[in-house]
Amino acid sequence: MEHLLIEELKIPEREVGSYSNNFGIVRVDVAHRLGRYTDQSIRPIVIFFETRQAKDYVMSFVRNLRGSRISVGEQFPEVVRSKRSAQMDKLKELKAQGQKVKISVSNLYANNQLIDPEFKRNPLPNKCLDLPAHLPDVLESQRTTERGSSFIAYAAPVTTKMEANAALQAIQGKDHMDKVTHLSYAYLTIIHDQLEDGFDDNGEYGLGRKLLPVIQESNCKNVLVAVARWHNGPNIGPQRFLLATEAAKQVLNQFKVQYGI
Fold this sequence. Notes:
It is a single chain. The protein has 261 residues and is α+β, with helices and mostly antiparallel strands. It contains 7 helices and 12 strands. The strands form 3 sheets. Strands 6, 7, 8, 9, 10, 11 and 12 form a 7-stranded antiparallel sheet that branches. Strands 3-4-5 form a 3-stranded antiparallel sheet. The protein has a two-stranded antiparallel ribbon with strand order 1-2. A hairpin with a 2-residue loop joins strand 8 and strand 9. The longest helix has 20 residues. The chain is elongated. The termini are far apart.
């Protein structure tokens, strides 16, 4: 461990705590390898430092590993990892434009300016606010399941934001929705040439803004699309977006048939 910290990361030896040095900033609480040992495997090392100050100090030396076979990264909670992953496409886009970009925890910066992650835009109030007596009819896609994650998409005709809110609550009120992990949605209305649209990831970070183009490309309007996900398995990475948008396309095809679009 001391070899990694001192020889590879180039941290001053006086700052690395040890049995003979009680004054170093960098003091390791627990360190262990991941996975089962084999002759062929390279097993990552997980290190827990005694203080956040120590972790931040070590991370400031990671640049010294450039060009080596060693990489160091922070272990974030699942929600933070999801937010970071959802912003990677935007990071690459801004980087290709020549901007200086970085992600700090779950925040994306370009030229030291915080970038809106667009996890929601013009979201619905999602509250029982003067709901109409008759809730919109809701169409439902087939359930798609992949490695413990299940997806169902819903579509409902709406002409106003209030009707979209009512449709969303009708979906939330379905019997099988009590254990849903995420319910992301997007809506688009055009009345008298006035367009209104919006979306909300609702925890499935990055999905809401992917659903809105699916609606636009389907040539549907005055519709709310929601995708429910039940997550009871391993992380499936970007595949979750593909499965969710495919379910949305399926239910929009049903919507087009139902309403003669």
